[in-house]
Design goal:
The complex is a heterodimer of chains A (111) and B (114). The relative contact order of chain A is 0.35. Chain A has no helices and eleven strands. Chain A is mostly beta strands and 111 residues long. In chain A, the strands form two sheets. In chain A, strands 2, 4, 5, 9, 10 and 11 form a six-stranded mixed sheet that branches. Chain A has a five-stranded antiparallel sheet with strand order 1-3-8-7-6, with no helix packed on it. By secondary structure, chain B is mainly beta. Helices cover 0% and strands 54% of the residues of chain B. Chain B has no helices and eleven strands. The radius of gyration of chain B is 13 Å and the shape is globular. The chains are: A mainly beta (111), B mainly beta (114).
């Protein structure tokens, strides 16, 4: 079983739709959590950190449930430019900040 | 500010040849990470350095792979001899504090071993 698991998709949605991605992690020692975005043939870039209280950045909302070891990302009013792969990432400080990446969820937003 | 710089951007080589990938981290960052990305295995950490010292190389696949960081502004990842299964995109990333800070990725080197 992979340490960070995501539904690979692809998710094909129309513009304006709301889409949710889920992620589970298996190591309870994981201490911080992120969503990265990766465009086709580009490098991963930090989208947002994920906090236990939940956090929002414009159309993006991230949630963390430590008890269930579950992370989510909600995108509202999706745009064509949101098309990318979204990577769920956990960080273990006790291993010097080693980032563990999920396989990514591919999103395609259609006109 | 310049981001993480990697060279070459593309490399095509024949099996058995030595390959050297290069990385210049963001100035002032003291942690540097080498990752490999393939369709099958996703993004995997190979090795990381803190203050030029290798901290965790448990992800290095085998002895054919080696990495160095002779100073704060330069690192290399070497594969000798290369094999077709090494074909992947290799990313370098840097951060100001390994444990807690955001990692910034370079554009990657796309390696093809024939």
């Amino acid at each position: 079983r992979k340490e960070v698991e995501q539904d690979p998709g692809p998710f094909n949605v129309p513009e304006g739709a709301t889409v949710a991605f889920n992620c589970t992690y298996s190591n309870s020692a994981s201490q911080s959590f992120f969503w990265y975005r990766q465009d086709c043939r580009k490098e991963p870039k930090l989208l947002m950190s994920v906090y236990s209280s939940g956090n929002e950045d414009g159309r993006f909302t991230a949630q963390l449930n430590r008890a269930s070891q579950y992370i989510s990302l909600l995108i509202r009013d999706s745009k064509l430019s949101d098309s990318a792969t979204y990577l769920c990432v956990v960080n273990r400080y006790n291993q010097g900040g080693k980032l563990i990446f999920g396989q990514g969820t591919e999103l395609s937003v259609k006109p | 500010d310049a981001g993480v710089i990697q060279s070459p951007r593309h490399e095509v080589t024949e099996m058995g040849q030595e390959v050297t990938l290069r990385c210049k981290p963001i100035s002032g960052h003291n942690s540097l990470f080498w990752y490999r990305q393939t369709m099958m295995r996703g993004l995997e950490l190979l090795i990381y350095f803190n203050n030029n010292v290798p901290i965790d190389d448990s992800g290095m696949p085998e002895d054919r792979f080696s990495a160095k960081m002779p100073n704060a502004s330069f690192s290399t990842l070497k594969i000798q001899p290369s094999e077709p299964r090494d074909s992947a995109v290799y990313f370098c990333a840097s951060s100001s504090q390994a444990a807690t800070d955001t990692q910034y990725f370079g554009p990657g080197t796309r390696l093809t071993v024939l």
